[in-house]
Specification:
Rossmann fold, 35% helix, 12 strands, binds 2'-monophosphoadenosine-5'-diphosphate, 6-stranded parallel β-sheet
């Protein structure tokens, strides 16, 4: 790495942020493209968000990714929101431009691209599990792609509220919804820890189901899908694709997807299961 007086800064803000893999693949991409920029993690407590974002802007940072728990709160700090940010109600990308804060959302497009590698969701029945922050970008993407969406959440009121907002159907029982669903998307945090109790009886998953999990690593849900011979997708491709779109926003350059993916090989990027790694 060749840091000079003109090196520019990008980064990710979150709390916690130490687990983030964005610095790994963003720096690989910046270096490959010969851009004089580095990408760093910044652990920002919620109470310091406003000061920190403004401080980073004043220090000349060019742009930031935004992760949990700041994705909604940054909307109040921004001077400009993209249409998607308005509709989703969350931003994962900030660009500082002439003292202005612009907010974008690339999660939805990252998700859609990752999903399209395994299934065309148009007119398919898709069961979305979870009604938190991640779910909103997923619902937006699936609606845009013409899916028929069923939404389930442990806390039912949240599912009903979100279903109203996005014009989709809230369901009471995962077990019943799975009968009619062709695609299952986990947006909850269940599976992050290996010993998390399952979201539902994974024995109900059939070979015909397409299973998508937003969690990067192979969760028990994804493992079941693999064992059943289902098409499936982990959260890794979505991570790369959302980051690639952020990279495009900050740098104006075509993101080097293959380099980004290869840089994550040692962090568990599913090279053997991902038929797309060598294609892009
Ligand atoms: P994120 O931004 O990652 O979506 P979040 O907004 O905190 O995070 O949402 C977490 C989601 O995971 C919610 O849908 C939550 O369900 P509740 O609304 O009922 O809390 C879901 N979730 C977390 N732990 C869960 C569990 N043990 N069983 C089922 N759902 C769970």
């Amino acid at each position: 790495m060749n840091i000079t007086g003109t090196t520019e800064l990008l980064g990710v803000i979150g709390f916690p942020v130490k687990h983030s893999l964005s610095p790994v693949f963003q720096n690989a991409a910046l270096s490959y493209m010969g851009l004089n920029m580095v990408y760093l993690p910044f652990e920002i407590r919620p109470e310091n968000l406003r000061d920190a974002v403004r401080g980073l802007m004043l220090a000349g940072v060019r742009g930031l990714n935004v992760t949990v728990p700041h994705k909604e709160a940054v909307l109040e700090l921004a001077d400009w929101l993209s249409d998607e940010v308005r509709e989703i109600g969350a931003a994962n990308t900030l660009k500082f431009s002439g003292g202005r804060i612009e907010a974008y959302n690339t999660d939805w497009v990252g998700f859609l691209r990752a999903v399209r590698e395994v299934v065309d969701v148009e007119n398919r029945k898709v069961l979305v599990l979870g009604a938190g922050g991640a779910s909103r970008a997923v619902l937006y993407a699936l609606k845009k792609a013409g899916a028929q969406i069923l939404l389930w959440n442990r806390t039912r009121e949240k599912a009903v509220k979100l279903a109203d907002r996005f014009g989709v159907r809230a369901v009471d029982s995962v077990e019943e919804a799975i009968e009619e669903a062709e695609v299952i998307v986990n947006t909850t945090s269940v599976g992050l820890k290996e010993d998390d109790p399952p979201l539902f009886d994974y024995g109900l998953i059939k070979r015909e189901h397409v299973v998508i999990d937003l969690i990067y690593r192979e969760t028990p849900l994804i493992r079941t899908a693999r064992e059943r011979g289902c098409s499936f997708q982990t959260g890794f491709p979505m991570l790369v694709y959302q980051g690639a779109e952020s990279f495009r926003i900050w740098t104006g350059c075509e993101p080097p997807l293959k380099i980004m993916k290869l840089s994550l090989k040692d962090y568990g990027y599913p090279t053997e299961s991902s038929r797309t790694l060598l294609r892009t």
